[in-house]
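Changelog note: in this version the structure field was regenerated for every chain. One regenerated record is shown below for reference.
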Amino acid sequence: MITLVLGGTRSGKSDVAEGLAARSGPPVTYVATGRAVDADMAARIAAHRARRPAAWTTVEAGADLPDVLRDVAGPVLVDSLGTWVAGHDDLDPAIAPLCAALRERAGDTVVVSEEVGLGVHAPSEAGRRFADVLGTLNRAVADVADRVLLVVAGRVLPLERVEGD
């Protein structure tokens, strides 16, 4: 089962995703896509690490996220697509290979992503490009997902597929 968990900044999306992954049963592999590029990001990464169960394995993925997903067996939590996109200097991630890797996985997969329409974006070409690319990626992953959840203020809303999509 593929579950996409969307939400804005500090919405609780990672907490929700961690709970879903934990219910899949051990061993869970946490696939981290972010890098500590500054003190704030380092603190965020440390907080995420501290709350994960000790039995979980962490794998750091850069641009090779599709290959990492193909190589990992069992339940996986990917956190997050926004940092994966931001890690591409050209803001051009491999969307089709990622979706293929998600479909090919045998284990449960929980994917966290930022819902780009819920936050402030830089009024720059790069900021607009990031929002466009992440929005496109979110739609593509939602298309292959079995379930899509939106987290707002720690509350979860299941998102239904509209007929004709």
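Spot check on this record: The longest strand covers residues 2-7. The mean pLDDT is 91.
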